[in-house]
Inverse folding.
């Protein structure tokens, strides 16, 4: 009898859920981090593209396919960013709910840019031709908060027992994003007017949100090396526009930057939209945003 009483009381004495949290798979680091913030201690999402992998050119592994097959919830930006996921998600029946975050209602989307002081490649990347909006949506804090809310609601539907906790975690994440946005805006204020160039045009949402003075990009397609003629034109444009810094991404060719900046006083540094060096987890999104802020300030300040 005592044993039966203990079994009956266990759910009341144990604060955690007796139901396993949904299995969540996230395509890239920033999405994984926002999902981890919502899940909290209830579970850990799985991340597909890690380290210096590029979502444009990632090759699926058998373990990735297994994780997708076993998932309850799959989070991705959409086919114009994680091109490698389009066929697996369309071609195989699975029980998972698939959330295309770029299709969330209410997102503040920006169209892909063309031109600027540094005119971009006329022949752009395939995903830029097929889709009119910039897919790096997480770099705008407003969008990150919307993503957090949407993930919390989907997890609440999948796991009603823990709905209150998912929503509380989402509220805390949104508040933390607000604090982060205010802090970054204050830190970047002294360098807002300073002109700079990015290697790959992936930072429009960040630039737009904080009013930065990006005058162009070296290429729309991160996988295409500009021609010698274009490199010559870029060198002249960088010099004429008074650019203080040219930012590259860690997963792309740095030799090109050395050629561009040879015999120039223009500085160079790194911006990373994916946070390749950041440890996965609920803090990763905030570390990514702060790290890019650090790089901008260090390279743009007098």
């Amino acid at each position: 009898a005592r044993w039966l009483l203990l079994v009956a009381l266990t759910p009341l004495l144990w604060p955690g859920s007796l139901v396993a949290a949904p299995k969540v798979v996230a395509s890239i680091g920033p999405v994984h981090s926002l999902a981890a913030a919502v899940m909290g201690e209830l579970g850990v999402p799985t991340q597909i593209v890690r380290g210096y992998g590029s979502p444009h050119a990632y090759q699926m592994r058998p373990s990735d396919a297994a994780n997708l097959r076993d998932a309850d919830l799959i989070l991705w930006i959409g086919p114009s960013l994680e091109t490698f996921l389009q066929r697996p998600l369309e071609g195989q029946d699975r029980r998972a709910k698939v959330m295309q975050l770029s299709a969330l209602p209410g997102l503040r989307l920006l169209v892909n840019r063309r031109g600027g002081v540094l005119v971009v490649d006329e022949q752009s990347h395939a995903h830029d031709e097929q889709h009119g909006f910039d897919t790096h949506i997480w770099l705008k804090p407003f969008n990150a908060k919307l993503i957090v809310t949407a993930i919390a609601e989907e997890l609440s539907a999948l796991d009603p027992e823990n709905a209150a906790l998912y929503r509380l975690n989402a509220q805390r994440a949104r508040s933390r994003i607000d604090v982060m946005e205010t802090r970054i805006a204050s830190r970047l204020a002294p360098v807002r007017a300073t002109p700079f160039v990015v290697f790959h045009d992936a930072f429009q949402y960040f630039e737009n949100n904080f009013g930065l003075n990006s005058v162009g990009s070296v290429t729309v397609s991160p996988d295409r090396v500009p021609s010698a003629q274009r490199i010559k034109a870029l060198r002249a444009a960088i010099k004429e526009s008074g650019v203080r810094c040219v930012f590259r991404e860690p997963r792309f060719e740095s030799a090109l930057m050395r050629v561009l900046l040879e015999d120039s006083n223009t500085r160079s540094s790194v911006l990373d939209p994916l946070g390749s060096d950041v440890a996965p987890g609920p803090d990763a999104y905030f570390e990514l945003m702060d790290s890019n802020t650090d790089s901008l300030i260090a390279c743009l300040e007098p």
In short: Confidence is low (pLDDT under 50) at residues 1-16, 119-131. Strands lie at 24-26, 46-47, 73-76, 97-100, 196-200, 214-219, 245-248, 267-270. The domain at 190-300 is CATH 3.40.50.1980 (Rossmann fold).
